[in-house]
Every structure is written in C-alpha cells, then in structure tokens.
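Entry:
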Amino acid sequence: MPSIDRRVAVLAGLVVGLSLVSLYFLRGVLATVFFAITVAYVVYPLRSWLVARGLQRRIAAGLSTVVVFLVGLLLLAPLAYVVYARSEQIVDFVRELPTVLVLAVGEFSYTVELAALREAAVAAAGNVGIAAARATPVLGLKAFLFTLLVYALLLRPGEIHRGILRPVPDRYHDVVERLHVTVRDTLYALYLLQAATAFGTFLIAVALFAVLKYDPAITLAVIAGLLQFIPIIGPSVLIAVLGAVAYMGNDPTLAITVVVLGLVLVGFLPDALIRPRLADYTTGMPGSLYFIGFTGGILSVGAVGVIAGPLLVALLSESTRLLAEERDGQQTYFEPE
C-alpha cells in the first residue's frame, strides 16, 4: 500500500508540475480554457440528461456543445451589433454630452469641466469598432478552441472526476465533494442567473428606451444588460447618467421619466421577476462578497476575473465553513469542578 500511495503522489506531483508549465506556455489562451471548463461544469447536467434518455455519449456531448454555442450567439449577438453596426451612433451620443456640469446648492455653485473627459470618451468609443475588427481572427480561433474544449470535457467527464479523486485520501473525499457542490452552485448562479437577468434587462430596456425615443435604444439596452453583471451597481448607473444628461439638456420631464421608469423597470423589475425563480441555483453568497470577488477578479486578471473572482471567494467561504464545522465537531467542553 505505501508503494501505491507513493506512486500516486509522484503522479500527482507530475500533473501539478506539467500544469504549471502549461500555464506559462499557454497563458495566451488561459482565459478561454478557464471559461470552457466552467461552462462544461454548468452544461454537464444537460449532457447527463441526454445520456439517460438513451443517446450515445458522443451525440449527447455534441448536442450539449451545440446548445452552448447557440446560447453564446444569442447573448453575444446584441453586443456584436452594437460594436460593429452602431459604433458611429455611440460616438454621436457621447459628443452630445455637455462640456460643463454646474452643481448648484442654494446660492453656491460649482462648475466641473467635462470637455477633456468627453473627448477621451469619444476617442475610446471610436476605437472600439476598429479594435474589434482587428481582433476578429483571434476571437474566431478562440471560439473554435472554446467549442472543442467544451465538447472534449463533456465527452468523458467521469474520467476527469476519477482523476481528481484518485490522489486524494478517502477521508477527504467529502471535502472534495463539498467544494464541488460549491463550484457547481456558484457557476450556475454566475452563468444561468446572471445571463437570464441580463437578457431580461436587455428586453425591458429596449422597450423603455424605444418608447422614450432614445435613438440608440438597442445600444443603451445592451449596455444595461452588460451592467447587470456588475453586482450592487447594475444598470442603475446608466439610468442615472441618462437622467443627468436629460436634466443638463434642459429637459427635466425626460430626466424624471427616465429615472423613475428606468430604476423601476430596468433596475428593479428583472431582479424581482427572474432571480426568485432561479434562486435554487445560487449559493446564497452575500452581495458584498460577490462584489469583492467581482471587483478583485476584474482588477487582477481582467475579463476572466468576472467568473474567477466570485468563484474563489465562494470556495474560500466554503473552506472556512468546513473548518468551523470540523472545529465544532472536535471541541470538548469541561464542566467546572
């Protein structure tokens, strides 16, 4: 038995070493690999359901991958439309922003110069389409790699599970399973819950901005949907900006209308309608911890931090809970003599 354990330890060390080397040489596609692993985690129940219905594992994995691809297209299509087709309207909208903001409180007033900020925003908005066009070949290659990895992970998930548990002593398997449940529930919350809420926000925002006769209605709705992925803040910041712009443009009626209807319909309604129905897919992680993970992940590793940050915070929280349960189970109380 000791020789077997030693062999397993050596092989586990080999896997860890090769993984570190791979992380260095494949760092250019690390985000793609990470997203593929997390998405496969979420889609695995669909693959299992198809297999239980009698489909071969290759067909089940292929159909599940197709579903992922179609859902990705559905979610990314509005963003691609904004970047490629409405970039000029974004620039025109930014150019209409005032160059001076006057803050008045009673008899006192303070003037804020916004000219430099507006010019920087115009330049950034104008470069979005160009940068996206240049990145199209790379994005296409990464999309192919992402699809291939999702299919490969869904093809033989049992082997991956056994490979992870193999070097872990039996008495720690329950810990691995608890962390597995945490990862699964967190990813469900991040992907299913956030994506569904963002899509609902987009649909409501399109209707609202169209009724209020905002010219880039789809553009603003896409921005509102994307802001749903930012915890606590959400699309409310966009509504506040639109209200401020309307007020500074001497249209207080529009300012009040967009703020009141926007905060209720765009900021509140999607959360009230969608999140309760998908509450079973959440870990119950407080919004403050989610915000810390989201913000820290974005600032540390970029776009991949949207998922990696909250996931790491959830695992840390669950590990702390496991430690507390272990300590409570072993603690001994002594009665005073």
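DSSP finds twelve helices and two strands in the chain.
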